[in-house]
Amino acid sequence: MSLPIVQGRTALLLMDMQNMIVSRYTSDTAQLAPFKQALETARLHGLPVIFVRVAFREGHVNVSARNKMFGRIIGTPGGGTEDIGTQIHAELAPRENEPIVTKIRVSAFAGSDLEAVLRSQGIDSLVLSGIATSGVVLSTLREAADKDYGLTVLADACLDQDADVHRVLTEKVFPVQADVMTVEEWAASLGEEKEK
Asked: How far apart are CA 99 and CA 2, in angstroms?
């Protein structure tokens, strides 16, 4: 007897929307409005929502001193899975049935069980949002594209410290491997699909 084929599904990934990262990029919660709109849109349309965060083992034993980005945190307090800085920002609080995937590097797939979560739910298309555009969004997009996921990037639900880098990525780099749109455009496209 063969197993039934699960119809492909789309999920929203909200990546690195945790206290210590959000506070590094903005002190204005109004800037989180597009992220909240994306979250509400996914929930309204019954799409799975998956939160991705970065956190490490106590004592940073899974961080290499050779890693230019993460090596500098070795010996500093915090960064563990229970630390307040690694919790999802209150403005985007996950619901009980929305998984929080913990990664240990930049890409959402790095050291996490994200792929198993996606596979178990029959998800083959991802809508990406997060902080930073040049960090988790870029790294996850590249890896997800190589894994043959369908991809959409919500340009206004991504933040970067460098506006020019954000613009180049969303206008020139990402469109090679993903559909790039605003949250409003994405919401409208879901409404059109529902009417069909």
From this structure: 29
